[in-house]
Amino acid sequence: MPERPAGGAEAEDAVPSPGRVYLVGAGPGDPGLLTARALELIAQADTILYDRLIPAQALDGARVDAELLYVGKEGGGEAVPQEQTQALLVARAGEGKQVVRLKGGDPFVFGRGGEEALALREAGILYEVVPGVTAGVAAAAYAGIPVTHRGVASAVALVTGHEDPDKPETALDWPALAAFPGTLVFYMGIRQLPNIAESLIAAGRPASEPAAVVERGTLPAQRTVTATLATIARQASGAGVKPPSITVVGPVAELAGEMAWRSPGPLSGRTVAVTRARAQASGLARRLGELGASVIEAPTIRIKSLPGDPLDPSLYDLLCLTSPNGVGYLFERLHAGGRDARALAHARVAAIGPGTARALREHGVVADVVPERFVAEALVEALSELPVKHALVARAKEARDVLPDALRARGAEVDVLALYETVAEPLSARALAGARAADYITFTSSSTVRFFLQAVGENPALSPSTRIVSIGPVTSETLREHGIEPHVEAESHDIEGVLDALVTDALTSSPCVTDTHE
Ligand code: SAH
Q: Is any atom of ligand 1 closer than 6 Å to the C-beta of 134?
């Protein structure tokens, strides 16, 4: 690459880059259906204005300093008025910001993206449109319904079902829709489904025509109801179908029977609340989603690093790490002193479990000791054969002293280095309500228990059918100290163990446990 002329970058910096708005589709819900361009823009944005129906993980890759503004509807209530959203887009871009306007599905399919583009054009703001995978096509596909099919449907119409039958000016042309030679896909139509079906039949669409409703398409909790046009509204309401759902009308709807390809995961239909820190929750949430669960993120703790001097590990012949967080912060302290993994070459390194060992490997260090059970007692046992003179136990500020005490009892000199502390994270009312009604609440450490109970108050008022899941005996003991008996305890005290325990429990317990309600 040719070198830039000296001062080129400075000259460039001097001219403020113009703000720009990206009208981005986030797809129908499965994070795998976010486009590469959407992910790239989310990662770069200064400001992101987002709607309710975007994938839960869509903002994971946003910059930590990005401004995230929710402009969607809250639980079916009033949305932020469209004019206000447009004014915000114009204002932020006017300040020179790179603004992502993130919408479910495709921005130009019932997404009001067109109105926003016009408002931006009028305000002289540059914009770009990033199409997304639209729900009408994707939810159908995930249910095994091709919206067009050779010899069966050679056209498809995307139709809004959100018409107010009392307002003649917004009424759909039912005769034209009934006569449409192909598949009809209705968006936003689940509440109007009885009207839609009746109007289509009255206008001449056969009552026997296949129809399907796909609820929460592409999400772990996806459900499909198939029937005929005459019976679909009753079937869907009987099944308790709620928005977001699309309705497919046409012979292709019947193909769902043969073509459905998504097998429900072992946790499908279950809601699982995750109480661990947001920074660590995403891995667990993703795995739960893959198993079919609907995840409620209810982080009750946050990890905060503690200030301290750069670390010189040359004194120690043993380093004990008790969490992946500890590994991260230990290396920060090493780097602060201009050192790297080579500074640990002379010492033995012990990790409490596979997660910690994995974090070490990411820093180029293979742990010498990893116990079979992932608790301090097991680490003590695993270290019993190792001669130790001077050990460093790098860990959280508040932790049990089992390991340092045991090493001292063996005559070793032990320094405990508190690298981080766990602090409370305020729980939103929404997360709390979700957790209270969840099928499972997972606790992955004693501090998640303590801070959760602190957030909910002494009477947690959990649903009687909520099952409490604990990562291991220490966490279970903390639950019992607070009068809560865990229903499930992981055999292996790590995230994989929690997932295994959940799946086993879900397979042996019915999704709606009613016996405790009597
Ligand atoms: N721009 C979006 C549509 C927004 S209108 C798109 O292109 O998909 C909102 C409607 O989209 C919902 O009422 C529902 O009909 C449909 N929808 C969105 N996400 C959905 C999903 N995961 N499953 C089924 N329908 C969905």
A: yes
SS3 160: strand
Query: What is the distance in A from the centroid of ligand 1 to the CA of 133?
Result: 10
Band of pLDDT at residue 463, cut at 50, 70 and 90: confident
Provide mean pLDDT across the span 467-489. Answer: 94
The pLDDT assigned to 151 comes to: 95
Q: What is the mean pLDDT of residues 444-459?
A: 86
Ligand 1 and 22: CB distance under 6 A: no
Q: Which of 13, 30, 46, 51 is the catalytic position? A: 51
Which band of pLDDT confidence, cut at 50, 70 and 90, is reported for residue 15?
low
Tell me if 7 is assigned to some domain.
no
CB-CB contact of 28 with 217 (8 Å)? yes
Q: Same domain, yes or no, for 323 and 385?
A: yes
The answer, yes or no, to whether residue 4 has pLDDT greater than 70, is no
| 338, 352: one domain | yes
Q: What distance in angstroms lies between residue 139's CA and the mean position of ligand 1's atoms?
A: 9
Q: Are residues 392 and 326 in the same domain?
A: yes
User: Is the CB of 28 within 6 Å of ligand 1?
Assistant: yes
Q: How confident is the model over 178-206, as a mean pLDDT?
A: 96
CA distance 227 to 206: 13
Task: Please say if 505 is a catalytic residue.
Answer: no
Task: State yes or no: is 73 an active-site residue.
Answer: yes
Beta carbon of 273 within 6 Å of any ligand 1 atom = no
Alpha carbons 368 and 344: distance in angstroms, whole number: 12
Does the beta carbon of 326 sit less than 6 angstroms from any atom of ligand 1?
Answer: no
- pLDDT: is 31 or 10 the higher one? 31
Q: What is the CA radius of gyration of the chain?
A: 28
**Residue 1 confidence (pLDDT) above 50:** no
- 106 Cα: distance to centroid of ligand 1 (angstroms): 9
Using CB atoms within 10 Å of the CB of residue 36, give its burial: 0 to 12 exposed, 13 to 18 middle, 19+ buried.
exposed
Q: Does some domain include residue 146?
A: yes
- 254 and 277 together in one domain: no
End-to-end CA distance of the chain: 75
Number of the ligand 1 atom closest to the C-alpha atom of 161:
15
Q: Is the whole model's pTM more than 0.85, yes or no? A: no
Q: Is 245 in the pocket of ligand 1 (CB under 6 A)?
A: yes
Please give the tally of structural domains in the chain: 4
pLDDT score for 432: 87
Does residue 110 sit in the same domain as residue 151?
no
Choice from 163, 187, 191, 247 to test ligand 1 binding pocket (greatest atom count within 8 A of CB): 187
Tell me: do 150 and 129 sit in the same domain. Answer: no
Alpha carbon distance 232, 208 (integer Å)? 10
Cis peptide before 266 (omega within 30 of 0): no
Range of the domain at 246: 137-259
Taking 50 as the threshold, does the pLDDT of residue 513 lie above it?
no
pLDDT of residue 494: 84
Residues 6 or more apart whose CB falls under 8 angstroms from that of 41 comprise: 22, 24, 98, 100, 130
